[in-house]
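# step 3/5: fold
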Amino acid sequence: MGKKILYLLLVAAVAGLTAFFVSKRVTDNRVVDLFSEDSPEMEELLSADKKSVPQRRVEVINVPNFCDAAETDVQAVVYVKVTQKARSRQPNSIYDLLFGFAQTPRDQVGMGSGVIIRPDGYIVTNNHVIAGADVIEVTLENNQVYTAKLVGTDPATDIALIKIDADDLPVVPMGNSDDLRLGEWVLAIGSPYDLRSTITAGIVSAKGRSMPNYSGQYRVESFIQTDAAVNPGNSGGALVNAAGDLVGINTSIISLTGSYAGYSFAVPVNIVSKVVDDFIQYGEVQRAMLGVNISDMTAQLAAQVNVTEIDGVYVAAVQKDGAADQAGVQAGDVIKEINLTPVHNSAGLQEQVSKLRPGEKAVVTLIRDGKQREIFVTL
């Protein structure tokens, strides 16, 4: 009986060892085969892998790099702080006499931006930034603070020129706003909400924009419209192209809330340059006048004057003895170009004339009776 049990245990041990070595061999072969590049199992695994993982093609998009323009021009855009001193007032009633002087009048403080355009301290900003200021204080990017003096203001273009007593200052180089194209990238640099040296990017959304004139005051408007974010405090700051050239001075926004809502406007640098040069040379703006009453073209006017394109500026009336009258411009003419530069609307015509001074000559290209004419006008 004991021998029989011992025999059974020996048989079981032999069977167990045999099964173990067979299993290990199979497993080892499976492991070796599975990780062999030429094995069917590996090919099957790789094939299944490719099917299960979606294949994607990654495209590299070239994004414009504004680093050089931003890092250079931000050095020449300044923070402008204006202070209007509190004025004492005379009492207008018994209430004023008894209670009106309980509080001490406070100075009014405003802020904006400015752009250094010459290394000897000339800075351009908006007229509405410094209007009524008793003290104008300029803070540079390096935190140096200067008191500025007013050189000139022009409410018609909303441009002002101030100067600080400093030399060897960084400047933003002047560009050419006529060369701007729709969709071109631009940067707005300024100090919105007292956030110094803020840079935003956008594109040129439109050119030659004007705004409703509810005051009736004479204005020259042919704004560059962009979608670069501009807020209170950006006024007077720089609008530059991707090369870092100044193409406009940020001036206003359209918003129901008073904050940026997608539309910002800048005075073209070609207007700014002429106004600034006048301030420096003459102390005031030398503004040329063409002497016409104008309106934008419409389909009805185009049919009336026998032109096929609804483009250009319609001459509604000619001022007697004005420059246009003396040169032979007539009511009903459609002005197409000033000095070979196309004008598509009234704002565009104003922009081109605003670059000129009294006494200068201009070539006016117009359509009359369906024919094109060139007339020389002394402004």
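# step 4/5: annotate
Confidence is low (pLDDT under 50) at residues 26-36.
# step 5/5: archive (pending)
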